[in-house]
Amino acid sequence: MGSSDQLTEREKQVLFFLCKGFLNKEICSELGVTIDTVKKHNKQIFKKLGVRNRTEAIILATTFHQKK
Description:
By secondary structure, the chain is mainly α. The protein is built from 4 helices and no strands.
């Protein structure tokens, strides 16, 4: 498993919105980017964190937050 330190600031923003339950289209609206850009960020987040999907990313992000 990776750590949130590996994520760019933008990826951290996307992960924040994922944790808040936002859909991809809502994230792109919040950040002013295209849906394809959000999907690319999601893929990078999953790869860097060593997870397979948004649910696993959210669970892992929650554990990051609890450790602080």
